[in-house]
Each structure stands twice: as C-alpha cells, then as structure tokens.
Amino acid sequence: MTSFEQALSAPQRYFRRLKNMEIVQDEGRPIVRRTHSVIESEIRWNGRRYLLLLPFRSDTIRHIESFEEELRNRRQGPLLGHIIMYEEATLLSSCGHKHCFDIFLQELPDGMMLEEAVHYYHLNELRDAVLRMKSRLDAIGFCHNNLRPANILVCHSGVVRPLRYWYADWEVYSDNEISQILEFIDKYDYPEANALRHHLAPAPEEE
Could you tell me if 154 and 162 are in contact, meaning their C-beta atoms sit under 8 angstroms apart? Predict the structure, then answer.
C-alpha cells in the first residue's frame, strides 16, 4: 500500500506508459482504496478519467483477460471495458526489492457514484435506471457478483453502469441481485429533499 502511494506521487519514475497521468487527491495525498483483491486509485490520463487497479493475484488479470475476450463476442450493454497494462508499475516489495506489476484501467464516464447521486437526482428515476441496468446485464448473461452502491456509477447521460468486474462471471442466464441497492436508495426518500432534486437525463437508446 505504501509503495503504491509512493508510485502514484511520482508516476514519471514508477510507471512506464502512465508517466503523464494526474492523480485524484484529497488534501494533497492520492486517494487510495484497498480490497482483498486489488488496490485502486482514481486518475486522469490523456483527457479521460479511470480507475487504476493493481491486483494482488495474477489470476485477477487472467480473469479480466477472459472477460474482455468474451465481451468482444457479446453485446456490451452498460459494461465498461478495461485496458490491461503488463509490467506497467515498478514497486518496492516489503524487503525493498523492485518488482514489475501488471495493472488495469477501467474508464469512468462523466457522472457520480450512487452514494452521491441519491442526494442529487429524483429517487424514482434512479430506481428505474438501476432496474434498466439489471435488465440489460441479465439480458447479456453477465453476473457481476458484487453489485452494491459502492460499485454503481450514475452517468450524466442517464445510464447507470456497474464498476469493478473482477468478481464477474458470464452465465447462460444471470439474475443480478439489486435489492440492497434499491434499499439504499429508499433510505433517502423523504419529500422535502425530493423537491430539491434534479431530473436524471432520459435514458438513451439501447447500445
């Protein structure tokens, strides 16, 4: 974790192709999150916004590789692809030795995470957009396996998109569980706030 933060603070030294990236910061420090599978940070690179993800295990990269291969043969729906960069980051191990690590990027369209969107958009419109996302994921046989508010992006285009796919599976039929997402939205349903919320952009045609 410390080595990753150090690399983000000086990308020109520790990254091969991402030397010119800009790191999203909070009080002068990179915003870094850790799960049991990856370390992630948000960056801007060549005019676009991404999640930069460093996996702890090589099978995570292999999973993303197979996901991208399958995605090329299916309708994309609300999914976002990845850019895989092999041996992109040079980090120090706990013993002080340098090692090269594979990373991947997931593009972030303009929008906000669901935790913020519930304060900004009409809740009925958010519910409908989440239900459309579920329907489109089920239709292409995609099972996210970790759908929760922290993994949901509400785009300015009106489309709701899931993020962080390293738990995902392709199945003949999927039924993505979204009850906790709808329950999370319902917690913010009180009239005095609804009057101040904005309308979500009309959903575009099926992609």
Answer: no
Structure-derived torsion over alpha carbons of residues 77, 112, 51, 171, reported in degrees to the nearest 10: -30
How far lies 123's CA from each of 127, 135, 180, 188, 198, in Å? 6, 18, 15, 8, 10
* Cβ proximity of 1 and 34 under 8 Å: yes
- Distance between CA 193 and CA 71 in Å, rounded? 40
CA distance 169 to 8: 31
| 99 bridge partner residues | 91
Paired tokens of 71 = 């995605």
According to DSSP, residue 32 is labeled E
CB atoms within 10 A of CB 103: 23
Dihedrals φ, ψ of 110, to 5°? -60, 130
- Tell whether pTM > 0.70: yes
pLDDT digit string, tens, across residues 139-195: 999 999 999 999 999 999 999 999 998 888 888 777 899 999 999 999 998 877 778
Phi, psi of 82 (to 5 degrees): -120, 155
Report the sign of the C-alpha dihedral through residues 123, 173, 171, 202, in that order: negative
Angle 123-139/179-186 helices, nearest 10 degrees?
170
Report how far apart, in Å, the C-alpha atoms of 207 and of each of 88, 105, 133 are.
32, 22, 12
